[in-house]
Amino acid sequence: MMSKTRGFWSYILSSSKYLNQRTDLVISRHYAKKPKDDGCSRAHADIASNPNPLCAEPCERRKKKKEGILHKIKLKVIEGGTNFGTPFRKIENKPAVCAPKAQPQKALPAPKKKVPPMPAPRPGVQVSILGADTAIGQYVALLLKQCSCIKKLRLYEAKDSQGCTRDLCSVVQDLQHINTNCLVQAFSCACYELERCLQNTDIVLMLESGYLNVDMPFEKRFLYQAPIVKCYADAIANECPKAFVIVCATPIDCMVPLIAETLKETGWYDPTRLLGSVAVPEMRASTLAARALCLEPRYTRVPCVGGTEGDSLVPLFSKAVEYFDFAQHNAEMMTDAVRNAPVAVARSEGPCTRVGDLSEAHALAGLVTTVAHALLCHDIPRVTGFVETDLGQVISPAKYVATDLLLNHKGVYKKFEFPSKLNSYELGLLDMALCKVVKNYELAMEWYQSNYECFVERGQNKLKKNFQAPRHYERLEDCAKHLIE
């Protein structure tokens, strides 16, 4: 019986695949006994202890250690926790945030202050030259034809002059060959084209009509030019009342008040749009001071105040260079040279009525270009001009005086007072000059009042005393009635 039982269990053990596989996995490592000083000793943990032939157990060294308090403290420190009472936080790998790239600095940093809005610049201005039949008018037209800010140039022939041998139409045809975008047109008084010449004009340059001898007395020159200037002013009030008028017809001290009174008749007078030119004497004074000081004439400026010619003109040579003043005898010599420059130039080459046309044309063309850039919002230049004094700024007893100005797109927007810290010689000249300017103004007003009755009888002008009342246009009312019917 025992033999049969033993054979049965042996058969079961031999036929069972599971038991055979488990027993094959049991690894027993046995090493030979060697002396202790052989230098090769193994830990007892590497030797299996009584392995179970049926189910082998893993080695104690491979067992997972139980997490203790130190392990928990380590996890808390890694997580950043300090309070053992708080639960463990879930560790997440947050996406790395890329640092913003530093943009390179621009060439011109943005302005800190907000720039005030400016009107859109216009492509160009239209200039009308009254009295372009003279040589100085043709020279000015030649210089203005090269100006990029002028889109149209209109030349008006006031009368047949003895000094100019070229016809105005021939001059215009010659100027058209210059490779600039400025369009040049010719108008003549024989065809009554003064109104056409002034239509839609932005700048009016009023020159002398005909050649006047520099030795002619002051009053005689005024009586010769006054009727022509009065006619120009009437046409300006009708065709281009908002144009910027530059007066260069001598005597300027009398012509500017005359034009102002004429524009007041129609209610279109704007003191910021009327300017008497002092560019020629200022150019001569600046050149003379620069040569005396061995400086660049372009960057030397001598302001001229008071009037525009003769004894009313006061060039301030003490303001030519900062912290420098000429000796009194040198200042007297240079002042006389500037005041008598037209006579000296005319007599330098013998009997000639006018030979200073080139320098005067250069100065006038520069003034027109400066005004054009100011009207186009390209610049805010500082110039010297003969204008009406500000009623809220008492600087002189004269109503009109030459002083420094600032120009913008609206015209004259700031008038400066006379420079401070003048020497005694300049103060004496300025006192006499203001008295002379007052006399010239009275002469112009006397002629205007004496000839006003003649203009009213002819029906040429109608006086308007109330400038606040609205204007009525008969032509517009007739057209409106026709449309209603």
What does this structure look like?
The chain has 485 residues and is of the alpha/beta class. The protein has a domain at 125-458: L-2-Hydroxyisocaproate Dehydrogenase, Chain A, domain 2 (Alpha-Beta Complex), CATH 3.90.110. It is built from 14 helices and 11 strands. The chain has a 9-stranded mixed beta sheet with strand order 3-2-1-4-5-6-9-10-11, with helices on both faces. Strands 7-8 form a two-stranded antiparallel ribbon. Strand 10 (400-408) and strand 11 form a beta hairpin. 30% of the residues are buried. One of its GO terms (biological process) is tricarboxylic acid cycle. Its EC number is 1.1.1.37. Residues 126-276 form the Lactate/malate dehydrogenase N-terminal domain. Keywords: NAD, Oxidoreductase, Tricarboxylic acid cycle.
Tag the structure with descriptive keywords.
oxidoreductase; Lactate_DH/Glyco_Ohase_4_C; nine-stranded mixed beta sheet; NAD; NAD(P)-bd_dom_sf; L-malate dehydrogenase (NAD+) activity; single chain; two-stranded antiparallel sheet; alpha/beta; 485 residues
